[in-house]
Each structure stands twice: as structure tokens, then as C-alpha cells.
Specification:
Layout lengths: L2 H27 L9 E3 L8 E3 L2 H49 L15 H50 L5 H30 L5 E4 H19 L2 E6 L3 E4 L1 H17 L7 E8 L3 E8 L6 H6 L21 H11 L3 E6 L5 E8 L1
Parallel strand pairs: 4-6
Antiparallel strand pairs: 1-2, 3-5, 6-7, 7-9, 8-9
Amino acid sequence: MSVRLKLTLSYTGFLVLAGAVLLAAVWLYLLRYVPDRAMLSTDDPDLGTGVFPIRSTLLRVFAPRAAVAMGVLLVIGLVGGWLLAGRMLRPLERITAATRLAGTGSLAHRIEMEGRQDEFRELADAFDTMLARLEAHVDQQRRFSANASHELRTPLAITKTLLEVASRQDDPDVDALIDRLQTVNDRAIGLTQALLVLSQADQRSFAHEAVDLSLIVEEALEALLPVGDQHGVEIEIDGGPAPTTGSHALLLQLTTNLAHNAIVHNQPEHGTVWITTGADETAVLLEVANTGAVVSSEVATTLTEPFQRGAERIRTEHEGVGLGLAIARSIATAHDGTLSVAPRPGGGLTVSVRLPA
């Protein structure tokens, strides 16, 4: 049975039951007290004078009319219940139509239900919110797939070109060719590993454990100190306790990416990187700031998008694969946190990560 039919039968059943209870009350509180024999009253001022009907006569007259009344209640319950159920379920039909439309791949449609804030309105608003998030996610995945395909194709095209040039030379420099192929291959491997980490963060396929961001920062900097020395960058740490829960490996990846970006994109030489950790009542904070070129607010907001390399984006000899901040943002989001990028006064960037305490 459909929900509308179930509601109709429910309304009808309750209406007929209420009628039966009313008739039972009439019998219980009225007819049962009527005597089953003739009674003549001549001296009771309350009853007056006359002959009163007996119970059996009243029942013969009352029963057919009660049956007719129950039949009328049954018809009213069925017709009225069907119309009332249809009116009540009309918003659900709009939600169902929108669901079927979304199932065909059209995510731009919205229900936008008007009226009072009832359960159906809340369901429609929640469905609209879900559609908006799905549409944004699908668009992001499409852009990401297109960009990833382009980025992966680049090292393969370079490798093919190098091999073609070498094949046309009578005496190719094998050592130089091997070095250049090794560089291109390392870039392709790094890009593939970054894509895998990004996919793992987006899917939230990791176990949670107790971690401290201040200890993770120390662990990440142990591996990055040679990079800092190579670029002549001074690293200053203010490592307050920052206990949270999450994946140690992914949070280490997040911290490493932020610190590595701050070091290699630091301009001019002999710049500074500041790394701060701390906590308040509701969240823990990781902040990485560096000196560098002046970056506009518009460019800063795009740096967390995968493969974004706008005209104003900072350029160094370390080009990377364009996924460092995108991975960091995905890891923060997977841990129910946020990552924000803002220009630092005087040049450089400040990247702030907030995670639940």
C-alpha cells in the first residue's frame, strides 16, 4: 500500500473508533439507566407526568440510526482522509521529483520549498543543501581530474620528446639524457604520490589516534632542516602543546607540506619561517608564516586549489607539483578542521590550521 492509502485508512480507523467510543458512551452513561419496564410518574416534579419508554424500545430505534451514523463516518473518513493525506504528502511529491531529477545527473535543480517551517520544509532544505554540496564536489572533482590528467601528461610528453631527440642524434649524451629523464620521472612519481595522499584524505580512510601537533612539527622539521640550510632560511618555532586526534601520518604530511612550502617559496634568501602551535578550549592551532614576495588576497585564496599556478603566484626554482596546499587543506577538512591562507604584511604568507581539540 502507498503511504497515502495507509494514512487514509489510519484516519478512517481513528474516526470510526471515535464514533464507536461515542456510541458506547451513550449506552454506558444513558441507555443502561433506562428501566426495561414501563414506568408511570405522576408525582416527581423533576420527571413530570407521563409514561416513559422502556430500554428495549429505545435500542430498537437507536441501533439502526447508530449503524447509519457509523456508515457516514466511514465514508467521511475514507474521502476526507484521502484528500487530507494527498494534501499533506504534496510536498513529499516535490522532493521525490527532485530526487529523481538528481538521479539523472542534474544537480543544479533546487526544491526551494516555501511555507511554514515544518518537517517537510526541513527535509527539503536539507536536500537542497546536499545537492549544493554534491554539485560543488562534482565540479571540483571534474576540475581536479582534468588538471591531474594535464599534469601527468606533461612529464610523459617531456620524456617522449627527450627520447625522440636522443634517437635522432648520432652520438647522444647518455649521461645527460639519463639525468633529465630521472628528474622528469621523479616529478611524475611525486605527483602520483601526492594524488594518492589527496585521495586518502578526501575519503577519510584512516584511523584516529591521540596526537600532539607540537611533536609532529618537531618530527617534520628534523627532515626539513637540510632544506632550510640549503635555502638559507631561518626557522623559528613557538611550540605550545596542541593535543588533538587524527591520523599521525596525514597530520605529519600536512605539517611537512606547509613547512616545506614556507621554506622553498621564501624570498629573498636568508628569510625566516615562523611555526607556531597552541590550543584553546575548543581547537588547536598550527600557524606557518614566512617572508617572501607580496601576494594579493585574491591570489592567496586560490593557492589551496589543486594545480593553481596563476600569473601572480610565487615562482622559485622549486616548482613542485602544485598540490602541497591542496593536500594540506584536504587533510585539515578530513579532520573536521579548517585551513586558511592570508597575505602576510610586508610579504609572504600566513597559513593557519585549526583542528578540534
